[in-house]
Amino acid sequence: MFNEKVLGRYELKAVPYEKLEKIIYHGGVVGSEFYIVFESGEKLEMSWTDKDDSKKVIIAVYITR
Q: Pairing between strand 43-49 and 32-38?
């Protein structure tokens, strides 16, 4: 997974599926907000993500679990 940083750089983060607690998706007309919450309480936020890209991530996580 990655979240965009300032100036278009990306911060890569390994996501162990066993440690996922929940995935939160809020879709709007133009974009969406997407969060992954870990068992530890840490939250990875990807705001203003394309709706179709967010749905692809959710499907990929669901299939690999």
A: antiparallel
Is-contact 27 7, C-beta < 8 A?
Answer: no
Helices marked H in the chain: 51-64
Query: Of 31, 38, 48, which is closest to residue 16 (Cα–Cα)?
Result: 38
Helices (H) and strands (E) counted in the chain, each on its own, are: 1, 5
Nearest-angstrom CA–CA distance, 34 and 11 = 16
Q: What is the amino acid identity at position 55?
A: K
Q: What is the DSSP letter of 56?
A: H
- Tens digit of pLDDT for each residue in 3-60? 555 445 556 667 777 888 888 888 887 778 888 898 989 888 877 777 787 778 778 7
